[in-house]
Amino acid sequence: MSGTITGMWFRKDLRLVDNTALIAMMNERDDNESVIGIFNINPSQLKKGTLNHQAFFAAVEQFSEEAEKAGLPIHFIVGKPEKAFETLKKAIPELTKIYFNRDERGYGKKRDEAMLTFFSDYKIQVNHFQDSHLHGVSEIKKDNGEAFKVFTPYYNRWKKLKKPLFQKEEFADFGVKGADFRQLFKEEQKYVSELLAEIPIELKGEVGLQRARGYLSRFIDKKVSSYEVDRDYPAIKGTSRISRFLRTGELSIREVYHRLNDSDGGGE
Whole-prediction pTM value? Predict the structure, then answer.
């Protein structure tokens, strides 16, 4: 294949809609650039048999199928990030750019900092974005630049900031077919197939953007007006039940915010 390859590294942003890094990649690419989807599985992080593990990989499987239908096959790479991407680069030496939505805390933050060094050493240009929150950790500070330590003044400053828009572009609308090098990763594909085969069938119907939007719509139509009261009573199903979709990134926080703001429902 002629030209260069640009990769979109998906993590906890399992959607093709309102995905900041994905939209930036597609808008900034040159005509001679092909694109690939990438998902890294680090076995040392897996907690097989737990509900969190099963639910997350049910979402990964659903997203992978949706991405392939849209023309962006997901290339699964297995191992610690540095080793997995070293294998990827050797298999696809034309890979010269990476886009991803960064983590800003915990293990993900440390991983991303290490990977910035790795990509620099391998001459891979990096483009990373804040996507998981309406505002990133560095956006809301005191006038002297220090971080807030009390919630109310933090929230008052948060409310004053202009909120990012819901980016409605979908990858399928861009009219660009992703490259497919999955034949170079047969062992990785086998590993992923065996991993996904362990997911209970009943979980597979509870994932995906359309399912997430269904929960959000029901919350807006029936629950949001009494949410500030009902959320305190476990016996009442008064919450949105969308946190799991936000955790995997199947649903965008910007879509949630603007749909709530645009709705007729009241509530604190």
Answer: 0.92
